[in-house]
Amino acid sequence: MPSAPNASPYTPDVALTDTLDWLGSPVEAANFPETLVRFRNDRWANAVGLAGLSDDQWAQHFGRFEPLPDNLPQPLALAYHGHQFRVYNPEIGDGRGFLFAQLRDGTKENGGRLLDLGTKGSGQTPFSRAGDGRLTLKGGVREILATEMLEALGVDTSKTFSIIETGEELMRNDEPSPTRSAVMVRLSHGHIRIGSFQRLLAYEERDHMEALVAYCLKHFPGPPPPEDTPGRDEPSVRLLHNVVERLADLAASWMVAGFVHGVLNTDNMNISGESFDYGPWRWLPKWDPGFTAAYFDQQGLYAFGRQPEALHWNCGQLAVALRLLSDAEPLIAAMNRFGPLYMDAVARRWCWRLGINRRGAEEDGALVAACEKALRETGKQPDAFFHAHRGGRGASGELADILEPYEPVDDSHDYWSDDQPQSMLIDEVEAIWSAIDARDDWQPLRDKVEAIRRMGDAHGAAPVPAGHVRA
Question: For residues 210 and 239, is the Cβ–Cβ distance under 8 A?
């Protein structure tokens, strides 16, 4: 994570409704009893020209959803389908959120990315079904913790932009109830999902599919496919190559972070490759490929060690949707790149987190295997493992022999002298929430966010796939 995003002026750019107005339904936000600003991400507000808002203005825009200047006049609830635990569901869409605004972290002239402000818990929509359209305050706090930790560990993630407590009491079967309510705004590099394409395939909307492919290639640009790739000039083939590259890197970034997302349905897969939508997430207490985050994932479909498989499967569902525009052969060729790309991304990110320079695919692969073996045999918590062996230090036996020729990077930041690393295990998450729930004490959360950002500053920016744009 860079020390802080660059400051930029407010630059609205309503690209989606200019070309894809059929992708969603206009909706109204809920009218909440209260709008108490509990969290505002001024680091990222500064990057999109909104840090100068007063708390009252912030609440008006991100609690009452008064439109931002020259932006969407009315929110849009986006439509999509998806495989949920590999069962196809055509009856989903934004059931408790909407697209509120589009803007850039910079200007078009200096290459600023097109970003979305989207919501969670902003009220019912045509896609709500039996849901109340609300978010619990605990869910909002958990989203802050997940996104801050992932960003600090180099994962391409949405940013929790705002949490506003809304003064309602909610009933939930997975929290002590009644529980407090909130509305969240996230800053994301788009909200186009694999499920967005699946919906167009279901309705055989070829023209809309072509328009959506063009939109994604324009606003989430990536490098061209390899020279010898069949169909490399076809837009749909180029898009699948880009998504395969991004999701292979995303899977690797979760694994190296020791993170378990929990719900890897196709409607939770962003075409930009950005991780988002955090429900029952966890960090590993120890290296365990079978560890699951969601109590309802009884078969372990989305267990820690199966996350790369899940993202590859999801890429396959995008390939199936793109058959509306392309022959199978070039799409299969794109899919076949996932495995090698994933292995390279794991090695690249593993060396980055250890604070050492890469030495080559074969040596780096052996290093990763030796580290995983040590993690399994010692039972060491992954955050503690990476901290203890930063720069190749503190190892013994086989691991020491493999680390010995690696050159450390500059580790002058004082974080690396801390006795203990930052982590995000469930007991600490519950303690932070308990302070808020029992005493309305937000200081432990503020302290944790500050500590996580210090760790992110120490790590610096993570390496990304060649030719892809990141924050």
Answer: no
